[in-house]
Amino acid sequence: MVTPRALKPMNPPFPAWYDANSKCDFHVGTEGHSTDNCRAFKHK
Predict the structure, then answer these.
(1) DSSP class of residue 9?
(2) Which domain holds residue 31?
(3) How many other CB atoms are found less than 10 A from the CB of residue 32?
(4) Taking the CA atoms of the chain, what radius of gyration do you get in angstroms?
(5) CA distance 16 to 24
(6) Contact between 21 and 9 (Cβ < 8 Å)
(7) pLDDT tens-digit profile of 1-44?
């Protein structure tokens, strides 16, 4: 079973990988990366 995790919002300057148009379902809709690109989810 996978439990979603909330992350703190990031503030500028953003890292190179940050994408404000992507949202991660694993991180409860947090902006910055997609679920497909989520390292925490992939290594769960």
Answers:
(1) P
(2) 19-44
(3) 20
(4) 10
(5) 17
(6) no
(7) 778 777 787 888 988 888 889 988 888 878 888 888 888 887 76
How far apart are alpha carbons 36 and 44 in whole angstroms? 13
Cα–Cα distance measured from residue 44 to residue 23, given in angstroms and rounded to the nearest whole number: 18
pLDDT digits (tens, 9 = 90+) for 16-25: 888 889 988 8
The residue type of 35 is: T
Residue 3 forms part of a structural domain: no
Residue 3 to residue 19: CA distance in whole angstroms? 23
Where do we find the tokens 């989810």? Answer: 41
What is the count of structural domains for the chain?
1
What is d(CA 1, CA 3) in angstroms, rounded to the nearest whole number? Answer: 7
